[in-house]
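**User:** My hope is that you can spare some time for a protein that puzzles me. As I understand it, each token names a local backbone shape. I would be glad if you read both lines and explained how they fit together. The protein I mean follows directly.
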Amino acid sequence: MPIITNIKDLKSIHERRVPRMFYDYCESGSWTEQTFRDNTNDFAHIRLRQRVAVNMSGRSTASKMIEQDVAMPVALAPVGLTGMQHADGEIKSAQAAERFGVPFTLSTMSINSIEDVANSTTAPFWFQLYTMKDEDFINRLIERAKAASCSALVITLDLQILGQRHKDLKNGLSAPPKLTPTTIANLVTKWGWGLEMLTAKRREFGNIVGHVKGVSDMSQLGAWTNEQFDPSLDWNKISKLIEKWDGKVILKGILDAEDAKMALKVGADAIIISNHGGRQLDGALSSIRAMPAILDAVGDQIEVHMDGGIRSGQDVLKALAMGAKGTYIGRAYIYGLGAMGQAGVTKALELIHTELDTSMALCGETNVINLGKHNILVPEDFVGRWQS
């Protein structure tokens, strides 16, 4: 086993071990992938302020996200098809998150179902909801999440229509996957992954197959999914979903100050500044660049989280110092899952925690809740100078 010192090391193992179509599903953005690249690259423009002769003993990264205690303000983001990166991927990721003390968010488009994850964990997890045209299905999905004692509903707002991801089209990623000669040749080389998948609890979308009329297996799923995302989603529908849930609600996909104000108006408990990992509107701002304007608009009136581009503990530190109360990792933990299963997810969390803790100390802080703009140096033109 190679020595693993950073998230990039896990990514390299993930790429070698997982079939190309699933690796590319994780490691891709829409169209030119400009926003996908900016999400990570823009963190490099922010510098840290080193402080010395500060008592660094007794450090703590403990915090809260939507009033829930967390070992560090980092949650596992919802990622579709996680169970195809590694057998029982959602279960293993949730178990790793629970043991580490951070939230896990289950995607609507997961392989393992809500019930699978609930039966394999003891800590409440969060459930991410895609709004779809089939209201009966959505209502039952919400009730299933309530029955599983999910402690928050994360409603994704930025997937009313699907952004084009060239790699997925070229790889034949669909439901079920299209087995081209190239795909078959690649799958043959991933025998370790294949042997593990033979033991998987599921290899289909567990929240959907068997729960939707006319969708009893994977062969029927593609056509249903393609016509189900709801282009008519508006703030009125979001308000009704919040009312139905009657619990903690986080709205994911906010990238504009005006939308942040609307999220506050409809009564969300938190928002996630997010561009869907650069997988929807290519050419949009990175999440970290969008943050200042959103914070200026809503301030402390609503809890502001962010995802997109976080690959290290220093990225987490920078986001928190900019004003976020919580952060999310998606690709960073998927690299670990694909590389080493549950142990890899734990390793990803450990790497991020160690780097956050060490960097925080070298910035002169002993408690993560005290991080602020005094810990960073942000270029004057960081948010961009755009014509009105």
Q: What stands out?
A: DSSP finds 17 helices and twelve strands in the chain.
